[in-house]
């Protein structure tokens, strides 16, 4: 074991991206080209997660959803994103931010409706027992065993 301390900074481009989503196959199309790089994990962060997300034109961040216990915040770095909630659509540009408090039953998602790639930071806490509701589709999620497990709304596993 080395006595050299870990450096507290990194270049996100050196991290392997996660492409797509872990949804059941029937719900993967919107996020098929979504690219995420986990920034917090390689830096040793454990209380909250941070992802650098890249959405190509036509791609979405997720199916519209809300969390029972997890707060989320996004900060737009580049490009233009359309935020979709119960209130309708709102265009987000670089420097804008949006927050989604835990337990507020207002599903949200980001869609890149522009002709250019968009980048944003996604920040969320890691509260145990989080559940995710998807108001527009027959999908529910539960955080278990280090990841989300997906079910139909009647509890049947996918």
Keywords:
4-stranded antiparallel beta sheet, 0% helix, globular
Structure description:
The protein has 158 residues and is an all-beta fold. The chain has one domain: Jelly Rolls (Sandwich). It is built from no helices and 13 strands. The strands form 3 sheets. It has a 6-stranded antiparallel β-sheet with strand order 1-2-3-10-5-8, with no helix packed on it. Strands 4-11-12-13 form a 4-stranded antiparallel β-sheet, with no helix packed on it. It has a 3-stranded antiparallel β-sheet with strand order 7-6-9, with no helix packed on it. The termini are far apart. The model has no long low-confidence stretch (mean pLDDT 94).
Show the helix and strand layout.
Elements: E1 18-19, E2 35-38, E3 48-55, E4 66-67, E5 72-78, E6 81-85, E7 88-92, E8 97-100, E9 109-111, E10 118-125, E11 131-134, E12 139-144, E13 147-151
Antiparallel strand pairs: 1-2, 2-3, 3-10, 4-11, 5-8, 5-10, 6-7, 6-9, 11-12, 12-13
Report how far apart the termini are: 43 Å
CATH superfamily: Jelly Rolls
Strand order of the largest sheet: 1-2-3-10-5-8
Number of strands: 13
Brief account:
With 158 residues, the chain is mainly β. It is built from no helices and 13 strands.
């Amino acid at each position: 074991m080395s006595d050299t301390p870990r450096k507290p900074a990194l270049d996100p481009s050196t991290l392997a991206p996660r492409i797509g989503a872990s949804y059941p196959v029937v719900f993967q199309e919107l996020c098929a080209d979504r690219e995420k790089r986990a920034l917090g994990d390689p830096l040793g962060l454990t209380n909250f997660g941070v992802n650098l997300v890249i959405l190509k034109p036509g791609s979405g961040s997720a199916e519209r959803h809300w969390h029972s216990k997890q707060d989320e915040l996004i900060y737009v770095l580049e490009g233009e994103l359309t935020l979709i909630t119960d209130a309708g659509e709102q265009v987000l540009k670089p420097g804008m931010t949006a927050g989604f408090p835990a337990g507020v039953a207002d599903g949200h998602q980001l869609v890149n409706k522009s002709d250019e790639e968009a980048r944003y930071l996604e920040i969320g806490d890691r509260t145990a027992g989080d559940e995710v509701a998807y108001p527009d589709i027959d999908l529910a999620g539960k955080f278990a065993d280090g990841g989300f497990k997906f079910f139909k709304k009647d509890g049947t596993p996918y």
